[in-house]
Amino acid sequence: MSPEERELRRRWRFYRTAAGHEPVADFLDRLARADRAAIAAQLREVVLEGVIAARHLRGEIHEVRAEGDRQSFRVLFAQEGRGRVLLALEALPGPCAASSIAARTA
Question: Which one of 28, 38, 48, 90 is least enclosed by Cβ atoms within 10 Å?
């Protein structure tokens, strides 16, 4: 894991099931390093710019999208106290329809 990935783990918390499983962390661990880096870059934007760097879906749920080597990723998160909780991570075939912040906020 790169230093950037370790730093992001400190600012983000993974959703944990009642049984103690962290499905988002497990999914990330199975990805190629380049894909994890693409996701980390998008999460870093949220850390630096706040939720304005993400698309608001409803209630407390926000979304960021990242472009990987061969697929795109959709990450859902919610604010909780001072941090953020990663709720879901979905792999999408091909490029995202709205991959830039400008496209997401237009």
Answer: 48
